[in-house]
Design brief:
single chain; alpha+beta; HU Protein, Chain A; 2 domains; two-stranded antiparallel ribbon; 3 helices
Length: 92
């Protein structure tokens, strides 16, 4: 599902809301998750899963075009751990 499909689904389930209102709600939801992760926090949606970040150490990578070694700096990457309900529904 992409963002526009999510907005259409929410519009269909909530006909009293205008498209602009649904878009604002979706943007607010995602922006809050992103901001919390950027602040070093964790976001847990009960029954769905938890979003957090993981630290990746600096490493030596390879440029696939030239084969040259390049330094890849340390960074934080997003991580999602599905909840029990999600795992069970996927494996029924």
């Amino acid at each position: 599902m992409i963002r526009s499909e999510l907005i259409k689904k929410l519009e269909a389930d909530n006909p009293e809301l205008r498209t602009e209102e649904v878009e604002r709600i979706v943007d607010l939801f995602f922006n809050q998750i992103i901001q919390r992760l950027a602040d070093g926090g964790r976001v847990e949606l009960r029954g769905f899963g938890a979003f957090s970040t993981r630290h990746r150490e600096p490493r030596v990578g390879r440029n696939p075009r030239t084969g040259e070694s390049v330094q890849v700096p340390a960074k934080r990457v997003p991580y999602f751990k599905p909840g029990k309900d999600v795992r069970e529904r996927l494996n029924d």
